[in-house]
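Now for our specimen.

. . .
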Amino acid sequence: MIQRMIMRYNRDMRSPVKTFQATDVARRSREVLDSGRAGGTLIRDKDGVVLLLAPAEEVARGEELTEVAGNFVRLHRALGAKSRDVGAYGGFGWLSVFPLEDQRLFAEELEGPLLLALSGGPVEPLRDLISDWRATAELWADETLRAELLEPVDEPLHDVTI
């Protein structure tokens, strides 16, 4: 599985996959490290275990996107269920404070940035979207504030002059 992930990653980044033996780490350390920095290297140990050498930020990015994608699937399942509890949303449990219509809107808005990030695009728009919705959920969870925000406004707060 890791080898397929690295091969796909390297295919997307257009750099070849290199595999080294454990003995190469000592004999050809500079080449092994340079290969790892370039996008990922596999090191096959004597007992058959395959180790991955890759930039830490790329591994962290992959883990983050895997988590968000899993939560996205859980969210879609929760939206289709007759009864929804907080646990059904996975890491998006904070969404449960919103009405169903807003939960669906979040799922729609999340799909584009998630697919872009999974395709090798920037992850920041995805992070920003989740952060903004989460902050809104924290405000929405306050029943007093929510009631005030939902009250109809009869007159403008102040005049605007241009």
Remarks:
- The CA atoms of residues 43 and 60 lie 19 Å apart.
- The beta strands are 18-21, 41-44, 50-53.
